[in-house]
What we know:
By secondary structure, this protein is α+β, with helices and mostly antiparallel strands. The protein is built from 3 helices and 10 strands, in the order E-E-E-E-E-E-E-H-E-E-E-H-H. It is 21% helix and 43% strand.
Amino acid sequence: MSKETTLSSEMLYDGRIMKLYKDSVELENGKTSEREYIRHSGGASIMAVDEEENVYFVTQYRYPYAAEVFEIPAGKLEKGEEPLTCAIRELEEEAGLKADKFELIATVYPTPSYTDEKLYVYLATGLTETEAHLDEGEFLGVEKIPFEKAYSMAVAGDIHDAKTLVAIYAYAARKARGELR
């Protein structure tokens, strides 16, 4: 197994949601190189599926893409927060839902080349509607669509968000193995 040894580390930026570093590393062949990377607290995302096998999605404008993105509810982990606690909070905040059951179905490294971010993907079932309460400056639309349509959208390339694709495909694999419904 290859490994790199950190020789020095410099924080270039300390932001609200991320920290940017530039490190000098020694490679396994003894040469040195530089690594620029982002430290991120990670997040939790939730594929909420109701009794009729409808899935709840949110749409929100994502500034880096200059577009509205179709995705499952998700949020950033607060310092020291457990992923499940974040998932429970974000499902209610963004989609106005509570769930009787949460099951971790995947852990995703969204961009391992330049960040240490981990996304925890949960399946939420036994849903009850409550009231959404969005964060300041957060504007979302909530959509409920049948799973089969969501799966078709994923296969057709109409869904671009990585955590949402992972959730859809993980759910489909479980269905195919007879683990669900």
